[in-house]
Design brief:
Blueprint: H1 2-18, H2 26-79, H3 84-127, H4 136-161, H5 175-213
Helix pairs in contact: 2-3, 3-4, 3-5, 4-5
Keywords: Coiled coil, Signal
Signal peptide: 1-23
Coiled coil: 28-55, 143-196
């Protein structure tokens, strides 16, 4: 009886060890480990993105507060003007300057985002070895250069967004000159930023051209800064 029991126990242990249900599956463990690491990375990425978004939102609020503070000071100074018609004109000009800057910045960011999307599609075709891509290696180099141009332009545009063009009043008699000074500065800054965006656009166009023809565009193209 004891011998029979021992045999049964030994057989049961053998079944448990060799059975697919009870045996340890190295492949399954590896899959679980990879999934866990991927989940951890995604969680960290989400936290970084959330942190960047929070910082960006805080920056925007700080900019708005700074502009609002300067505009409040401007209004107080304008209220002391003897010529209130001149003060009202200055108030309208001042409001328009910051609005123009913000509107132009938003448009540029949209253009840059569109460029990135175009590059994503182009890169997918290049890496997918589609027949119309003449030289994948050169195309990848051109795409990398275009991405760098977009990144540089985006950084410049975001910096421009923080600029404040509230009129700095020196005196009532010089308010026209004070307003012109800020207007000219805004024009100068936007022209410089627009050039960076156009350079990025040309880099994207060049990447498309290289992908299709296998050669870079001629240096005698559209002058930088012109559309």
């Amino acid at each position: 009886m004891r011998l029979k029991t021992a045999v049964l126990l030994t057989f049961s242990a053998f079944v448990i060890i060799t059975s697919p249900v009870f045996a340890v599956n190295p492949s399954a463990e590896k899959t679980i480990d990879i999934k866990k690491r991927l989940d951890d990375r995604l969680e960290k990425l989400d936290k970084r993105v959330a942190s960047k978004e929070a910082i960006a939102a805080e920056k925007i609020e700080n900019i708005k507060e700074r502009i609002a503070s300067k505009e409040a000071i401007l209004r107080l100074k304008l209220e002391k003007f003897k010529n209130q018609e001149k003060a009202q004109i200055a108030q309208r000009v001042n409001a328009n300057l910051n609005i123009i800057n913000q509107n132009q910045i938003e448009k540029m960011l949209i253009h840059l985002s569109t460029m990135s999307t175009i590059l994503d599609r182009l890169e997918a075709r290049v890496t997918g070895n589609t027949p119309d891509i003449k030289d994948p290696a050169k195309a990848k180099e051109a795409i990398a250069a275009a991405r760098e141009a977009i990144s540089s332009a985006s950084a410049a545009v975001k910096d421009q967004k923080e600029n404040d063009y509230t009129i700095q009043i020196s005196s009532e008699s010089k308010i026209k000159a004070d307003a012109k000074k800020q207007r000219d500065q805004l024009h100068k800054d936007l022209t410089a930023i627009r050039k960076r965006v156009i350079d990025a656009k040309q880099a994207v166009s060049n990447a498309i051209r290289v992908a299709k023809s296998g050669s870079e565009s001629s240096k005698e193209g559209t002058p930088s800064g012109q559309q």
